[in-house]
Write a structure and sequence with these properties.
Mean pLDDT: 79
Structural class: alpha+beta
Shape: elongated
Number of strands: 11
Length: about 475
């Protein structure tokens, strides 16, 4: 029987006893290294014959760490634990133990941050879903402008829901008595608004239409928020942009949020004009020359944008000239739409009230234009023409609506500007061709710029009152 020397047996016992002990020749890596001395090779072979695991600690570690993803805290901890298992040096064991503790602390911190982020994402998603639900409900309830307030953050979803609740209460009150309508309007804080004076005067009378009362409440809520927005704008330093923002807000072309952002923009622009242009689709728009280019106000974003081939700007004209809306015609329109004056019946006022935002604006522009044109052609006061102008447009093909007797309509009320007003008995109205001013008459900002123009060239400039003027270079 073979006998082994004490030195060989000791070599077998101590083979690979330390993970950190040198076990490779110079220039080779520790992990998976094979013994290079004769004694080491002999010890490994004999130990294997005796049934011992003769792998080096580095080899055992390499196998234990196989498949571990070191790109995660879990993988780094598992790798450190494997190393600790095969490390026999007390100092290095302590270092690895500290490393594991630090990794676990970092993992816990990362887990907390990930959980917080997940909660935030979930809350934002729930908020967006709730906001979308409230917006949809408001639009279905005929409160399109309030829906726009919720959409852009002027109102929170809770405020939007509160308004929905108010509409439900209004619907119940409308079916009862004058006293119940007075009570709900007072409770909502609208009793001091002029539009509800017909409910509280000596000759007070209830609204017979639930739809109309809801429309009036929607308008009252809009007016309340518009007044707040105007008040904030008037506290800003006076500027052309602030003045324009107030006008756009009062016209319903901007939300309070959009108006505030517009008031602080730094674009160089002329005083915006209203009632002079429409888009190819028949929507009346406000226009301005911004940084030397003719642009129109996009009511969806509250920004001025350039016309394109698909969105042409078309002048609203009569007798070949753009028609201006006079303060007299504006006041006349307000009187016609006043419930207290009773010029229109409730159904007609309700149909007008179903319009919102740009459609209300387009209708009002069309009505004031038509009344002005008839006033000039018939040599009559504009007040005498306004009522018929409003009624004719409400009854025209240019006004379309969904189920106007309910507040769950799929198609909102819309109004588009007529191509011409000749079909309404205006003989002097002329057809106009779409125009896109891609290269408008240049806007000069200095005498030097004007002097650079060829003789006979037309140019635009802004006078001391902020008004845009056109002249010809001599």
């Amino acid at each position: 029987m073979a006998r082994f020397s004490p030195e060989l047996l000791r070599s077998i016992r101590e083979f690979g006893s330390s993970l950190s002990a040198p076990q490779v020749s110079s220039g080779r890596m520790l992990t998976g290294a094979q013994p290079t001395t004769l004694g080491g090779i002999l010890a490994r072979n004999v130990g294997g014959l005796m049934g011992r695991d003769m792998r080096t600690p580095a080899e055992k570690l390499a196998e234990a760490q196989q498949g571990i993803n070191l790109g995660t805290y879990e993988g780094q901890i598992a790798a450190a634990q494997a190393r600790l298992k095969f490390e026999t040096d007390p100092v290095k064991q302590q270092e690895i133990g500290k490393q594991i503790i630090n990794l676990r602390n970092s993992q816990a911190q990362a887990d907390r941050a990930a959980a917080a982020e997940a909660r935030t994402v979930k809350q934002e998603k729930e908020k967006e879903e709730r906001q979308a639900k409230v917006v949809s409900s408001l639009e279905n309830a005929g409160a399109s402008q309030i829906a726009a307030y919720v959409k852009d953050g002027t109102y929170t979803p809770s405020q939007g829901s509160q308004h929905l609740g108010s509409l439900i209460r209004v619907g119940k009150a409308a079916a009862e008595s004058l006293e119940s309508q007075q009570e709900i309007i007072t409770a909502l804080g609208y009793d001091k608004q002029k539009r509800f004076s017909f409910l509280f005067g000596e000759d007070a009378k209830p609204v017979s239409s639930e739809g109309l009362l809801k429309i009036l409440v929607n308008k009252a809520e809009e007016e309340k928020e518009i007044n707040k927005g105007v008040s904030r704008l008037k506290k800003m330093a006076p500027s052309a942009n602030v003045t324009a923002a107030i006008s756009f807000l009062e016209e319903g072309l901007m939300t309070p949020q959009q108006a505030s952002a517009f008031a602080t923009r730094e674009d160089k622009m002329t005083v915006p004009k209203t009632g002079e242009f429409k888009l190819k689709d028949g929507t009346a728009v406000a226009t301005s020359v911004v940084n030397g280019k003719l642009m129109y106000l996009d009511t969806t974003t509250g920004e001025f944008v350039e016309p394109t081939a698909d969105n042409l700007l078309v002048p609203i004209v009569s007798e070949g000239k753009q028609v201006k809306i006079t303060p007299q015609s504006r006041k006349s329109l307000e009187n016609v739409l006043d419930v207290e004056l009773g010029i229109l019946d409730e159904a007609q006022i309700e149909r007008h009230g179903l319009l919102s935002g740009k459609d209300t604006y387009t209708f009002n522009i069309a009505a004031t234009h038509l009344a002005d044109l008839r006033s000039k052609e018939n040599n009559t006061p504009v007040e005498a023409e306004m009522t018929k102008a409003v009624i004719d447009l409400l009854d025209s093909e240019y006004y379309t609506s969904g189920e106007s007797n309910t507040f769950s309509r799929d198609v909102p009320a819309r109004f588009v500007m007529p191509e011409t007003f000749s079909e309404f008995g205006i003989s002097t109205t002329t057809e106009t061709k779409p125009t896109v001013e891609t290269t408008p008459v240049p806007l000069v900002k200095s005498i030097a710029e004007r002097d650079d123009l060829p003789a006979g060239s037309k140019y635009r400039y802004v006078d001391s009152n902020g008004q845009e003027q056109t002249a010809t270079k001599r």
